[in-house]
Amino acid sequence: MPILTLKRHNAELTIHRLAPSVQIPPSVLTATFFSITRTPDELSIVCPSNVMLNAVKSEPGWCSLEVLGPLDFSLTGILAELSGCLAASGISIFAISTFDTDYILIKATDLEKGCQALSAAGYKII
């Protein structure tokens, strides 16, 4: 696999859990970055922490590392390698995938440690 470059984003994100029947709040749709997943059991929204939502549960304090892409669908093991490297350093992640790339969310308090671990493993962090 080629050496991957990850772009560090320092903007704080919050992961929200809402009831599955809740309408998507319009304030989310105007944010510069958001991810929405609805299942029969929940509505999960990741958005900037300054977007206030009436959520059942919220987990603030995340930052993201963007795997610079686009990544070809034939590539395998990208998230496994990244998450394995971070897990070996005791860092928990929340992953978001898009058509073109992956985002690894890391608690802001662990971001520097995570970047150091990934750099030591050969990843380029910008």
Characteristics:
single chain, 126 residues, alpha+beta, seven-stranded mixed beta sheet, 7 strands, globular
Describe it for me?
- With 126 residues, the protein is an alpha+beta fold.
- 20% of the residues lie in helices and 38% in strands.
- It contains 3 helices and 7 strands.
- The radius of gyration is 15 Å and the shape is globular.
- The mean pLDDT is 93.
Set down the secondary structure blueprint.
Blueprint: E1 5-18, H1 26-29, E2 35-38, E3 43-48, E4 57-67, H2 78-88, E5 93-97, E6 102-107, H3 111-120, E7 124-125
Parallel strand pairs: 1-7
Antiparallel strand pairs: 1-3, 1-4, 2-3, 4-6, 5-6
Task: Put the structure in a nutshell.
By secondary structure, this protein is an alpha+beta fold. It is built from three helices and seven strands, in the order βαβββαββαβ. It is globular.
